[in-house]
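Typical record was shown:
=====
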Amino acid sequence: MKRENVTYTFIVLLVSCVLMITNGLLVALDNSPKIVSSFQANFTRVWDANTFWGRIVFGVPGLVEGGWAYFWLFLVVLLLIITLRAGIRPRTQKKLGPLMVALALLSIPIGGGFYVGAILGVMAGVYAMEFPKPFIETFVGRITSTLTGGTKVFESVSKDSKGLQTAVLVVILVGLLSGFGACLYSTNLGRIYPNGTPAQEDAVAASNILIGGVLYTDASFYTSVVGSMGVAVLKWLILSALVYLFGAKLLNSDVSFAVLSSVLAFVYVPEILMIAMPMMFTNEPYLSVTYQFLVFPISWPLILFYLSRFWAFVILVFAIEKVLDISRGRAVGTAILVSIPYFIVNYLQLYPMLETPGLRISFTSESSTMILLLGSIALLIAVFLGAFRKE
């Protein structure tokens, strides 16, 4: 294995362990999860606040009290020992990779190193399991490269004989993580408003969730997460079909549907951001009622939604440009052209029909005129950028 690969795994895991131990010690000393909020207050003050209030919880209530935090800390120390072993004997990291991933995940009860540590630990562990592949050819490498705007990953996937299998894993992973976050947030929002209206909250559940950092789950939550993975696969197939029709066929490209769909799976990677939804809860109107900024509704979940979808659109442009071998301008035009029917099929047809779990964007009859106007403008832009032009 190249020296830089060894250094990458070792340094990332070392940083991960330092973050986990720091977070774990803070939790152990307080004998409770570490809660960071805009200002310290009781439930009544938060609920009646006229200013924004939000909180983030590092740790899981009920799993760290009574000295249990030290048990999770012991597992992190074990991960540190394994990390040092992997640094001294790099060839052992492939065998130790699964254990690295498991121990990194088991740091979550004590906050997972402010969650950043757990993420880094899991990534390094998965990367170690694919030793001694070049970084760009590993599962983690491809996802990281996609998020950082690298285009070599699309060429790597298109030439990979197992590219389609990797694409399926990417889509399912994104559906699992994004669905987990969105469904967990929605489940607890439902606990706060059991009747589905902000006018009547469950004060006990609201206090536990907002002030105590408790997160509730039930059977419907787990079935919703499974449903989210199914919806993710449907969205991927719809996008692949649209790009194949309005991109490959329209531009007379000889790229196959299998190669195209393998590349387009990575467009959905930014949706992993949705797993952060339940990490933060706010007061009203940001909790369940959106705040209007110009023509855009704003709330904590919607901020993640906008960011992840814009990020995905940028990746879509890069993917179309690379796989169809066209200019950046035409790639933007094709991406816009594809986004119009994709938006209509998913948000106006598929989501309402399947009653998709988690965050759902609904539209009223009054908004149809605005949607039509924006769609027309987008179509004109796509035409101007040469989406329909054949070379």
Observations:
- The longest helix spans residues 219-249.
- Strands lie at 34-37, 54-58, 280-282, 291-293, 296-298.
